[in-house]
């Protein structure tokens, strides 16, 4: 294994556990709802947004409403706009790798690539590994769901907490490594807490991102003056 591949694989191991847990639950849910394997598989490959895919499974069995589907997907995935803005300078010279880095960007890949850096090849490898974990997790979950009874499905409740635990571990690792530079970390915690109280748990993510972006923008402008 090359150095970039070894480093990317090491960094992606926490994501492997989270994505396989969630991907398996996603595949099992699709199986229990009577979908063909091609529905969850095609969404995993082309959509690559776990929260949107879970929502899509339920929306596809209801009345056809493309406007509602588009609005829901945009609201759920709006945070990726801020991820992209944050990576503009970092990926400016990525060349042919940039489209793949953009398409394979997810919460976990963004968190690791932004905090760890590394070569474009390493970031691309890590993003592809995370992408493959989600796709393979969905496939395993679907066929596992075909083999077990409906009575076993209730044991999947609460598995999505593994993503929360993973982000806490990434946050703490970054917090401990960057000693004396915790301003951005505290800004994220404070902005999240205030927006959570103000907007509620279902709608606080986008306002939080706007607050963080605004504060960092003015901080950046003040440093340039």
Question: Keywords for this structure?
Answer:
mainly alpha
Rg over CA atoms, rounded to whole Å, is 19 Å
Portion in beta strands: under 5%
Number of strands: 0
* Cα-to-Cα separation, first versus last residue: 47 Å
Low-confidence stretches are none
How does the helix and strand content classify structurally? mainly alpha
How many strands, what sense, and barrel or not for the largest sheet?
none
What is the tally of helical segments?
Answer: 11
Give the averaged pLDDT, no decimals.
82
Order of helices and strands: HHHHHHHHHHH
Q: What general outline do the C-alpha atoms trace?
A: globular
As a percent range, the share of helical residues equals: over 70%
Describe the structure.
This protein has helices at residues 3-32, 38-46, 50-59, 66-77, 79-86, 97-103, 107-116, 120-147, 161-177, 183-199, 205-224. With 225 residues, it is an all-alpha fold. The longest helix has 30 residues, at 3-32. The N and C termini lie far apart (47 Å). The mean pLDDT is 82.
Write the layout of secondary structure elements.
Layout: H1 3-32, H2 38-46, H3 50-59, H4 66-77, H5 79-86, H6 97-103, H7 107-116, H8 120-147, H9 161-177, H10 183-199, H11 205-224
Helix pairs in contact: 1-3, 1-8, 2-8, 3-4, 10-11
Quick summary of this structure?
The protein contains eleven helices and no strands. The protein has 225 residues and is mainly α.
């Amino acid at each position: 294994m090359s150095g970039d591949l070894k480093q990317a694989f090491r960094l992606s191991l926490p994501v492997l556990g989270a994505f396989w847990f969630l991907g398996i639950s996603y595949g099992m849910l699709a199986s229990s709802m009577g979908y063909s394997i091609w529905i969850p598989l095609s969404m995993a490959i082309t959509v690559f947004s776990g929260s949107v895919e879970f929502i899509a499974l339920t929306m596809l069995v209801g009345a056809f409403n493309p406007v509602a589907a588009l609005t829901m997907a945009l609201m759920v995935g709006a945070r990726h706009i801020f991820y992209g803005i944050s990576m503009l300078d970092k990926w400016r010279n990525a060349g042919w790798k940039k489209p793949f880095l953009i398409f394979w960007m997810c919460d976990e890949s963004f968190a690791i690539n932004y905090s760890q850096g590394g070569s474009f090849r390493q970031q691309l490898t890590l993003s592809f590994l995370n992408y493959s974990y989600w796709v393979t997790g969905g496939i395993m979950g679907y066929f596992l769901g075909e083999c077990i009874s409906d009575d076993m499905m209730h044991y999947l409740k609460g598995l999505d907490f593994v993503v929360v635990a993973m982000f806490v571990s990434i946050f703490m690792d970054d917090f401990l490594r960057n000693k004396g530079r915790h301003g951005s970390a505290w800004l994220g915690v404070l902005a999240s807490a205030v927006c959570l109280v103000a907007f509620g748990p279902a709608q606080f993510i986008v306002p939080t991102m706007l607050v963080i972006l605004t504060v960092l923008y003015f901080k950046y402008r003040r440093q340039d003056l």
